[in-house]
Amino acid sequence: MTRKDRSPVRDVYLFGTCVIDLFMPQAGLDAVRVLEAAGVTVHYPRGQSCCGQPAWSSGNPDEARAVARAQLDLFPEPWPIVVPSGSCAGMMHKHWPELFRDDPGAGSRAQAVAGRIHEFGAFLLHVLGWEMSAGASVLPESVVLHTSCSARREMGMRTHGVALVDAVRGVTRVEHERESECCGFGGSFSIRHADISGAMVKDKIASVRATGCRRVVSADCACLLNIGHAAQHQGAPLDVEHLASFLWRRMGTGEQA
Which CATH number is correct for 135-251, 3.40.50.11810, 3.20.20.140, 3.60.10.10, 3.20.20.220? Predict the structure, then answer.
């Protein structure tokens, strides 16, 4: 992997998200590896936990505020904060300032942190000028890209993932009919409206399978967990992979996961 010297960035914080920490730690480790391969030193504050999105999306701003407040002082240096999740990045960038709008002290800190938030793929593409190195794998592979609805709505994503996947030699990104639709997870939505959520992910999986692809790549682990577990429950031959893990795998020996 190579980078164009678009910026003097040499140090970043990684906000790993609770979903990655608890369910898909490999995605977080691979995000670190990809960033380090680009010449960036990654700092991981040990006290971090959750962005507060589960409480916020469930209509509990006080609980969300308490969780977010615990994170505000974990990033003292003026470095970019890279988040390997579009939905969590959106929570921190857009909603943290809203949570602390009436708190002069915490509000200014929340605004400062929010201004340094970068979604992982967008940071690679637009800040580091990421390019796949000449020695990377060129073995043929087809993948389907999934972008979470929160990432699209709050961080203006999709084009970042498209550009990164398309830049990997040997990989064909296949469009499918329901690519722009929600996977049905939506945090507490999947619990409160289980029947609707289940129908949505069923449609998503059927659309992916109709392409003949067996791998879904996304920058949001919650979506991957939902799609992957639903596919497993249906007996559908479908693998899911975080964008960071996908890039790191293709940068390495070329062995298929």
Answer: 3.40.50.11810
Fold of the 2-127 domain: Glutathione S-transferase Yfyf (Class Pi); Chain A, domain 2 (1.20.1050)
Residue 143 confidence (pLDDT): 95
pLDDT digits (tens, 9 = 90+) for 175-220: 988 877 888 787 777 777 788 888 888 999 999 999 999 999 999 9
Q: Is the pTM of this model over 0.70?
A: yes
Q: H/E element holding 196?
A: helix 194-209
DSSP assignment of 82-139 equals EES-HHHHHIIIIIHHHHTTT-HHHHHHHHHHHTTEEEHHHIIIIIS-EE--TTS---
